[in-house]
Amino acid sequence: MPRNYLDRSLAAPLLLLNFTFYVIVLGIAGWSLDIMIGQVVIGQVAVRTPDLYGNAATPMFVIFTLIACVVGIGSILISSHLANGWGAEHASTVISIATLAWSLLVLAFGVACKEISIGHTNATLKFMEIFVITLAVTHSLYLIVVWKGHERV
Predict the structure, then answer these.
(1) In the chain, at which end, N or C, are there fewer CB atoms within 10 A of the end residue's CB?
(2) What residue segments make up the domains of the chain, in order of their start?
(3) Over residues 56-68, mean pLDDT
């Protein structure tokens, strides 16, 4: 049995879980952005409906979440492509792109925490906040597993 077998066996389910979370959050964030853009200007009159819009942190939360999800999905696609040749030359690439995705996700996590502390959000935004927080934890676990796997290669 190879020395990094345990790390590979943990990395694949975490990749699948993270990919599923990223796709769900990307869909909700895209929908939220569409709602916000549709509410900003209708004709020449600015319209704002607080029930759908959220609070003051919502625009930044949605934008940072969209960016983090797109980079995270790219990171997962690169990681899954390079998983077959799990060597030292591939591990450094996987770790660097996973760290970049994680840092953007932590930024979205921070804005989600601020949005939670402000309050006045609807159920969809609360659902997205919960998913971003959960995704930050699972992506952190994935980064730890990949980093430990790189140390053993």
Answers:
(1) N
(2) 25-152
(3) 90
